[in-house]
Amino acid sequence: MFPLPVRAGLRPPVPSEPSHLARRLGCSEEAVRLARDSELIDLHIDTFIPPRLWGYDPLVAHRSALLGRWWFGHLDLPRMAEGGLSGAMWSITTNPSRGPQQRWRTFQRNLAGMQALVARSGGALEIVRTAAEYRSARARGAHAVIVSIQGGNALEAAPGGMAAVPDRIVVRATVVHLTTSSFGETSSPLRRFHRIRGLTDKGAEFVRQCNAERVFVDLAHIGEAAFWQAFEVADKGQPILATHTGVDGPREHWRNLSDRQIEAIASTGGTVGIIFSEPFLKRPGGPSNGRMVVEHMDHVIQVVGEDHVSVGSDFDGMIRPPWDLKSGETYPVLVQHMLDAGWQHDRIRKVLGGNFLRAFEALRPE
What we know:
With about 375 residues, this protein is of the alpha/beta class. It is built from 13 helices and 9 strands.
């Protein structure tokens, strides 16, 4: 469905006055200003899925998600600017039903489509590969697109694996996604329909390829046995991520990480991105709004401190976010929940983007 035609007169979006957005969202002007003044980096968005499926154009404003706050349509460039989103890991998600060669060809086509989308933005979006490129893009006022792969088996048939991806353009990759693959076992209940258990030899080699290319190894979605096997194989001198997940402390769930897993990621200098998916976060008797995200963040802080937790919404990834975090302009509401929890500005800035930027600087400074 891409590339879409160039729209005449496309201009970078201009956010509304902080007081106006604060009134509309029901949060403080302080929260809006803090969101916009911080480096706010979302570790996982799937906003490239809708253009692939039906030609949704993320460069222009949309009124709401396709089904209210459900599933798709959470983000577009104007709403990202309104909410203060300065950068994000834009995922290219792998279709597991295809064969290895077709997955590799499809990935190349999708990567070209994402590059075309960025080119069509007229400088409002910029692909960044390093921390230095991130800083340069932000100095020009662009939203930083950090290209990622969800489902490393997209590269199963690529000659040389991760090394076949041109220009170091991919910065992060999950080993698996919602289905078990030739690389290893997913955490999803769908794993029961597959004979593979743990991490396979192909999966271990993929982790090594990511380390060789200085690509973040992302342990979101991976089954627990495979998690520990991948952790054992990985270079501990490179930060490991879990970009979009909940944690078991507030809510035990197949999608969430245990305290031991949180500690392992933190030991590498990595960070855990907390997802906005209500079914993974909401505990019986717990908050029904975005405060549930802060509860999970608080638990990570209790376990490993405030330097190892981040935002990983999974917007546009078929999720059901809390009602007050329904789309991209609502990031200040998350900040308001942080303020209401008594968080100081320094901690909030770390969680919004500083913790990831520290890891990015360690992995790929320039």
